[in-house]
Amino acid sequence: MRDTIKEYEAVAKAAENFVKSVAEGNSAYAKQLFTDDAVLFGMLDGVLEHGSIEQFYHNVDTVGAGDDFKARIDVLAVEETVAVVRVLEEGWGGRIDFTDFLLLLKLNGEWKCVAKAYNQNSDTIQTSIATPHHTIAAKSDAPANAEAPEGIVKAIEYYIDGGRKASSEVARKGFAETATMSWYENGKLQSVPIQVLLDLFDSWEPTEASYKIVSCEVADDVAMVTIDSQFGDAAYTDMFTLVKDSDGWKIVSKVYHTKP
Hints:
- The protein is an alpha+beta fold.
- It is 22% helix and 47% strand.
- The protein is built from five helices and twelve strands.
- A six-stranded mixed sheet has the order 2-1-6-5-4-3, covered by helices on one side.
- A hairpin with a 2-residue loop joins strand 7 (175-185) and strand 8.
């Protein structure tokens, strides 16, 4: 269910640490937002970046945002313990526009970011740059998509069908090899490789499964999708970060909330 406006404001306040770090060239603020094992995914100047959020800290500390840098924060969804934020950035490093999707969990009363995916605006790409350096992602003033693109739906349906058929072989087709899964349990953040979910599916019996896409935000080759899903009697809110590469759309991060 949709959370209160006060909670949306708390999420936006947390995301301000991200923008402040980029604007001032100081990762200290962002380190208050991200968990230690947070991950990032995105294409910078045509090169795929993925891995530890430490890459982002390094870039923030070594590349100045520039005098003309601008940013805007949009809180797209808050679902009790999970939230999605979009950050639009213009003029980073004097030349690049980005769109970031930040996936947050509420941990011990604080909103923390566990995954970041970004897209670089296509008219700012310089493929001649030899050494990629990371940051944020492409400008988009478009509203949330009423329907998800076919490739995104296909990746999600692999996930749903994998649970329905109790088959990791099916579900695996929707995920990147380095994908992660995160959730909040017993007062602690849990974050594991997606293989844990795949192994879980193999331990199930086939079951009824269904889903509904609640929201879908796409910025060129990155996307953030929220779904309501049901496997047997268990109901969830799933928030996915997806990246499009030469093999199509793949889920790179899954954060979920178990509904009561």
